[in-house]
Inverse folding.
């Protein structure tokens, strides 16, 4: 166990659905991250979120929107996704933004039909 | 980030040492080297990091060459559970960039 939990672990959704992924960290960290891992592709950073600010990867489509209500919780809201958005979505946390010692959750395996 | 180069795959016998190389010839003086691994269908796991001195923890040892152009992650007694993709990352920019790593297969 890494101290970072993600729910749900598996999600199947249609292209017209709205769903949310949840991440919670119990490590006292103050920065949280969303990554996307598609089949046979390197891990891709989507968003960094800290108390100070949110940093977006400009290539992330607006159908993905993060929310960080406090330093322990991070959400990824999904709407009108495409089949190519099917991937493993990973949450991570660290002491401070920009720290490379990150602790990852187990991921949510998302399938868009 | 300095570019890192790793072999795409390696294999190792169970109980033997697994030595995973990483080339980071363009690394600058203040860039740390980080290692992660990712077991199939799980999130990446932080292993170890170092700047210029060799480092050891309960998981592995990290040997960095004196010129810092390469490093080796050593799993001293590999087990089947060490089968994973191992990523070597050098810290330059503020967010890590994970490449394709080395797929290590530990066989009985």
């Amino acid at each position: 166990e890494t101290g970072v939990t993600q729910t749900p672990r598996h999600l199947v959704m249609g292209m017209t659905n709205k769903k949310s992924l949840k991440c919670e960290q119990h490590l006292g960290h103050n920065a949280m991250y969303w990554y996307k891992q598609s089949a046979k592709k390197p891990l891709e950073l989507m968003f960094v979120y800290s108390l100070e600010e949110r940093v977006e990867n400009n290539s992330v489509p607006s159908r993905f929107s993060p929310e960080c209500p406090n330093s322990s919780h991070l959400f990824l809201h999904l709407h009108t996704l495409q089949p190519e958005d099917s991937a493993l979505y990973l949450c991570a946390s660290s002491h401070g933004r920009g720290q490379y010692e990150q602790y990852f959750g187990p991921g949510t395996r998302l399938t868009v039909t | 980030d300095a570019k890192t180069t790793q072999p795409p795959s390696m294999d190792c016998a169970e109980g033997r040492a697994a030595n995973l190389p990483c080339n980071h010839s363009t690394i600058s003086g203040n860039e740390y080297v980080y290692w992660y691994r990712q077991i199939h269908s799980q999130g990446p796991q932080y292993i170890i990091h170092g700047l210029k001195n060799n480092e050891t923890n309960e998981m592995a040892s990290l040997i960095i060459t004196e010129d810092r152009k390469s490093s080796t992650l050593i799993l001293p007694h590999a087990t089947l559970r060490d089968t994973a993709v191992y990523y070597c990352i050098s810290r330059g920019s503020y967010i890590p960039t994970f490449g394709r790593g080395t797929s290590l297969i530990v066989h009985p």
Strands of chain B lie at 9-13, 18-23, 33-38, 45-50, 55-56, 61-64, 70-75, 84-90, 102-107. The interface with chain A takes residues 32, 34, 41-46, 49, 89, 91, 94-100 of chain B (CB under 8 Å). Residues 28 and 60 of chain B are 24 Å apart (CA to CA).
